[in-house]
Specification:
By secondary structure, this protein is an alpha/beta fold. The chain has helices at about 1-20, 40-45, 45-60, 90-105, 120-130, 170-190, 215, 235-240, 240-260; strands at about 65-70, 110, 135-145, 155-160, 200, 220-230, 265-270, 275, 280-290, 295-300, 305, 310, 315-320, 330-340, 345-354. The strands form 3 sheets. A 6-stranded mixed sheet has the order 2-1-3-6-4-5, covered by helices on one side. Strands 7, 8, 9, 12 and 13 form a 5-stranded antiparallel sheet that branches. The longest helix has 21 residues, at about 240-260. The protein binds zinc ion. Zinc ion binds near residues 71 and 141.
């Protein structure tokens, strides 16, 4: 009896396999198929869920000013996909425009380095950002590989300036890069690549000790996003679809919004309580934070050297005595983080002691 069942099953399995076998000439590969796979985030395409998201994020975005920098454009239109249908300059601008729409809808103010297909030098992009009085700078790009045999390379990357430990490195910038990277790569279903564990990269990796011009020269916190590779044989197909560019913008928007929702400490010099009596100069810096401050994280730097301070945990304020500092010009910088490892918005002040 058992043998009969086994034979019967074997016959069914064999005939089953035989009937579903695809003749070899009908096999298709990713090289010749028009394959544009992407998910449509329901909180973007369902109007009720979209309104709910925007309303929830508005609480954290109202009053914020963001500078967007769509890379390339004008005379710089040389970055083109292998199928000839994607010009990097154009998709950077489309993504930036959708992102502007989402940010403004949620109550933020946006400034752009370019709003059309025009030439803007890197110098001008940095100058525009530095005089913009915006809170942070986001440069939007798409990546490429020069080696045409590597047309399978595709990942999402977010760049910050310098290496951790360098004076130029900024923790706040790195956190912002992490948030955008997480939400963008998830939205695109595109990983962060093998070069880093969280998809964020130092710009020194590409340009050692120098970094990207805009990240180095822009004085507000700045990140540069490489959404994906336009040289990828698969990615080029979805990058040419505007609906997908809109989804890219949604991924960046969610990263910015979630970063602001998490919140970060904000430092301000207390003008009333900071005093100079005779030769005693005392600065008071107030720390505005909804969360507790990690007291081990506090660093007060005077011309790059760590100096002493007193932290009043109850009132969340720092007292810095500069009595020992000789007359001269100084840069005061304060770095700290809250209990969730969110670092303060960069606080750097130029001080002249007479
Ligand atoms: Zn680019």
């Amino acid at each position: 009896m058992r043998n009969e069942i086994f034979i019967l099953l074997t016959i069914i399995l064999i005939t089953g396999c035989a009937s579903s076998k695809i003749p070899e000439k009908e096999l298709i590969t990713f090289d010749d198929i028009q394959c544009a796979y992407y998910e449509k985030p329901e909180d973007l395409f369902d109007s009720v869920l979209y309104s709910k998201s925007i309303t929830e994020y508005s609480e954290f975005l109202i009053g914020k000013k963001i500078f967007l920098d769509p890379g390339h454009g004008g005379q710089d239109r040389k970055n083109i996909s292998p199928n000839g249908k994607v010009v990097e300059a154009d998709i950077n601008l489309i993504v930036a425009k959708y992102l502007t729409g989402f940010l403004e809808h949620a109550g933020a103010e946006v400034e752009l380095s370019r709003a059309s297909d025009e030439t803007v030098s890197l110098e001008d992009r940095a100058l525009l950002a530095n005089k913009s009085k915006t809170d942070f700078f986001i440069s939007i790009h798409h990546n490429s590989t020069e080696d045409t045999t590597r047309n399978w390379v595709n990942y999402t990357a977010a760049f910050y300036h310098a290496n951790p430990g360098d004076y130029e490195y900024d923790y706040f910038e790195h956190s912002l890069a992490r948030y955008i990277q997480r939400d963008l790569s998830y939205t695109l279903r595109n990983s962060g690549g093998l070069g880093s564990f969280d998809g964020t990269y130092s710009d020194y990796l590409i340009k050692p000790n120098e970094g990207f011009y805009v990240l180095r020269e822009v004085k507000i916190p700045a990140v540069l996003i490489e959404c994906s590779f336009f040289t990828s044989r698969l990615e080029q197909q979805r990058l040419q679809i505007e609906e997908f560019n809109k989804i890219e913008a949604w991924g960046i928007f969610k990263g910015i919004a979630n970063f602001l929702k998490t919140g970060y400490p904000l430092l301000t010099l207390n003008q009333v309580r900071s005093v100079k009596i005779n030769d005693n100069l005392k600065l008071i810096v107030d720390v505005d934070s909804k969360k507790n401050i990690n007291t081990n994280s506090i660093k007060v730097l005077l011309n790059k050297d760590e100096i002493n301070y007193i932290f009043d945990e109850k009132n969340k304020s720092l007292e810095i005595n500069l009595n020992d500092a000789a007359p001269g010009k100084y840069e005061l910088r304060i770095i700290l983080s809250d209990e969730e490892n969110m670092f303060n918005y960069p606080f750097t002040r130029q001080i002249i002691i007479k």
